[in-house]
# Entry
Amino acid sequence: MPQEESPARKAPRRRPRRTHAERREETIAKIKAAVVESIAELGFHRTTAAEICRRSGASWGAAQYHFGDKDGILTAVLLDSFAALVDELEGLPREGASLAERVEQFVEGAWRHIKSPHYRSTFEILLNLPLEVLAEHEDVSAQSIFETWDGIWRRFFPEVELAPGRRITLQYYVISALSGLAAFRKFGAPTERREREQLRFVKETMIREFSSAG
# Structure
């Protein structure tokens, strides 16, 4: 009676071959991740084509094929960052949450994204990418960014009727305060207590302004 072949002698099971689309998406993701990683570690100006290729393992020809040029890669990273912020807040606020609870969820959710390496890279790109380049891409224009932020804001606080100018001022304050707090991390993270105090101040400011609208 023939003996059953032992598991150790069985031929290894072949992994299914990836499709062209899967390989394409993997290459695109690696290139964008390399940009985020490089800017977060080295800064905008030291994130060269050679550095992007070294970190991603892709050739510059492949990068150009998928994105056109370096500016195309940078704008793609910006779009990813805005999408990540939307995803971070997508499942919030909880149904039936009070105004104070929604403020808490909004600030904490936005802060999780803004303190990430992805956002730090986004911020440097926005500071350094020429305005004419941003103007060529409607999805990353200042108007598009603000409309996305305003849409999230209105979903969280639909009952709050601030005057338009006041609402915009408060929105700019929140994003500026959180971005500034994240920027200080580059020079050495603030203590946990100091960070929580700053976040509490942002939340208290929002609640105070919302209360004045009533």
